[in-house]
Amino acid sequence: MSVNHAADRAAGPDLGELRRRAAAAARPEREEGLIVCENLVRIYQTEGVEVQALQGLDLAVARGEMVAVIGASGSGKSTLLGILSGQDVPTAGSAEVAGHDLLAMKRRDRLAYRRGTVGFVWQQTARNLLPYLTAVENVMLPMSYTKVKRAKRRARAEELLDLLGVADCRDRGPGELSGGEQQRVAIAVANANEPRVLFADEPTGELDTATSEEIFAALRRANEDLGVTVVVVTHDALVSEQVQRTVRIRNGRTSTEVLRGVTTGQDGVEELTAEEYAVLDRNGRLQLPSEFTERLHMRRRVRLALESDHIGVWPDEAARQARADADSGAGTDEGQEGER
């Protein structure tokens, strides 16, 4: 019996293996997508002051999506774009784009990543194009860095300019182009090396409404015809309505998402729909909209109740009293105003 017992113990997993299994079972399932950020953190030191630009951000973007990332100034959206495009390095967390680990990449790998895996369109049209090159030469230039043969460069460049509706601009310099034409050429430049992802930073920030719609039409064409995943960063909520999914960043984290689609009513008429969701991160955290918490005077603590099909969030006693006082004061003011 003792021999068999010893053999059984030898065949079974040791304590270390059991611990690894327990840790793996407790770990949340990893998000899937072409772009995956988990608990992403970016901390800056500015004049001796620590600034937390990203505070545990989670984000997943599927291959072929066209997504808008919006947020107020200082929310962290530009920091996120800098990290995903390979121009900045996160402090902690994880970030992967098309299989590239952005925290582990070496300098040479990062350069190759920026040249071949991602494309970028800046807000300032002058930053996207070299002034001494024609439109077609600007589009051909990135291909020279990846050793594409010259004959193929020209053919690819002209194909992209034609796709984006600026074929007639190929022999003109940036100074001879309108703002909208410059941005469409810039989109062609960003797609020159067939990137997996195209990032655009406020691409319509310097353009009027009509021209902005042309730029988004060009981005959609690149998304649909070239198969490139598109991520647009903007502070303009109206611009974000041009895409199927809008992700809002607040205080360095993703706070809400708006999903848009088309539904067919009982009368057979198609209607555009949009529904907003709060984002629940891997740690069970979500951000309640400030207009909700302010209306109910929620501060610091709230009560939770698990119902059959939802979770109730309730203000604590102090918040309820503050709301009652505020409502009472409003009623008194209205009564006094009526007496006058």
Summarize the model shown.
This protein is α/β, with parallel strands linked by helices. It is built from twelve helices and 13 strands.
Task: Summarize the structure in words.
The protein is α/β, with parallel strands linked by helices. The protein has two domains: 35-258, Rossmann fold (3-Layer(aba) Sandwich); 290-340, no CATH class. It contains twelve helices and 13 strands. A hairpin with a 4-residue loop joins strand 12 and strand 13 (311-315). Helix 6 crosses helix 7 and helix 6 packs parallel to helix 8 (179-190).
Looking at the chains present, what oligomeric state does this protein adopt? single chain
Q: Which value, in Å, is the CA radius of gyration?
A: 26 Å
Strand segment tally: 13
Please indicate the percent range of residues in DSSP E strands (runs of 2 or more): 25-35%
CATH class of the largest domain: Alpha Beta
Features:
seven-stranded mixed sheet, 12 helices, Rossmann fold, globular, alpha/beta, 2 domains, four-stranded antiparallel sheet, 13 strands, 340 residues
Helix/strand layout:
Elements: H1 2-11, H2 15-26, E1 35-46, E2 49-61, E3 66-70, H3 77-84, E4 92-97, E5 100-101, H4 107-116, E6 118-121, H5 125-128, H6 135-145, H7 150-163, H8 179-190, E7 197-201, H9 209-226, E8 229-234, H10 237-240, E9 245-250, E10 253-264, E11 270-278, H11 290-295, E12 302-306, E13 311-315, H12 317-339
Parallel strand pairs: 3-8, 3-9, 6-7, 7-8
Antiparallel strand pairs: 1-2, 1-4, 4-5, 9-10, 10-11, 12-13
